[in-house]
# Entry
Amino acid sequence: MTAPSPARVVAARVLERVVSEGAYADLALDGELDRRGLSARDVALATELVYGTLRWQRYLDWILAPHSRRRLDDLDLGPLVLLRMTAYQIAFLERVPAFAAVNDAVTLAGRARKPGVAGFVNAVLRSFSRRGATEREPRPPADLVEALALRCSFPTWLAARWMARYGASEAEALMRALNERPPLALRANTLRVTRDALAARLATEDDIATLPSRYAAEGLVANHGGSPSAWRAFADGAFAIQDEASMLVAQLLDVRPGDTVGDVCAAPGTKTTHLAQLLDNRGRILAFDPQPARLNLVREAAKRLGVTIVETLDGPAEALAPKFPALCDAVLVDAPCSSLGVLRRNPEVKWRRTLEDIVTNAERQHAIVTAAALMVKPGGRLVYATCSLEPEENEDVARRFLGAHPDFALDPPSEFPVALDADGFLRCRPHQHGTDGFTACRLVRCRR
# Structure
């Protein structure tokens, strides 16, 4: 029997770990790829299979179900992963031969050494592969929310929220945008190179074509050419990997060289080092994080990018901020959140979140921004941001804070690369801006 594609072996293993261990797909995939030493082509296929299967998981279960005599929810994880992964290839990847995908799935199922598993997987997938694209979808539910959630592969509770907030058409556009492959966005490290010089270097050294990003002056969008961390320009600290919406958050803080800046949820350091760029590496950045291991990522990023003004402090904002009263010209609160705005990059998150998580997050976020505000000097600025579009985690937190702190006020800039909404909030929406989903607002501490 022919050995299965190493890309499919890796993808199946990662998908199992995401479900059984609660692993994050990006970290699990990176770990498997580091151990296996796959070719660039197999790395690309494994990556596509992992993220595509997770994005479309609910939809795949829906179109697979008529071909299985057993409820998919009752299957062992191994065969269920193989069915989903192979259905994704047949339904979404036109260049992948169906017979090759099915054969590899059957081979991998046989490795389980459980009687009947390989035969079951073979029967389901052969039946599924005989259906044409127009015949795959079963009759949708009569309930419009449920039908849209199935077709867009989202949890019903989340689809219902977005339909109520945006209307069916825009909710569908948002969900479909969050199922797309995200662009590979790079931030030129302007401490070392201009954006144009970085683009020229990537083209010369690694044959990577780029385009200037739409909103961020230091941003590039690269074609997908393997692992950016393997490019020479990355090792030299010429760029960081960062979505354009994330770049706009640091720009909103409007720091100036020589400022003292607080970044109270700093790990992994992407925005911290961006702030250092905007400061021209002149001034002081206090970078907090409650997880020591993640704080090491801030130090590593600063070292690679040649940033020397970051002081890392281990601990939560609530404990550390009171030690620096009214010290900072600017403070960034990039608060931990539901991450529902970055599902293009972390699709497994939508299968883990609940409404209760959003409510719980809001309490934690309020505590963090309240503590961080102690660090802002009169006349100083505070940016509160999340990678979420949910009101409970954003405007509700900001308004609750402002209600309790009359010495702070909203301070939206008069001009910004992305037009702010009428309420003064920056909202980057995947279906409108092509970025990750972010929400942010800028506050100012009034002078006495």
Q: What stands out?
A: Residues 242 and 431 are 18 Å apart (CA to CA). Residues 184-241 form a domain with the Alpha-Beta Plaits fold (CATH 3.30.70.1170).
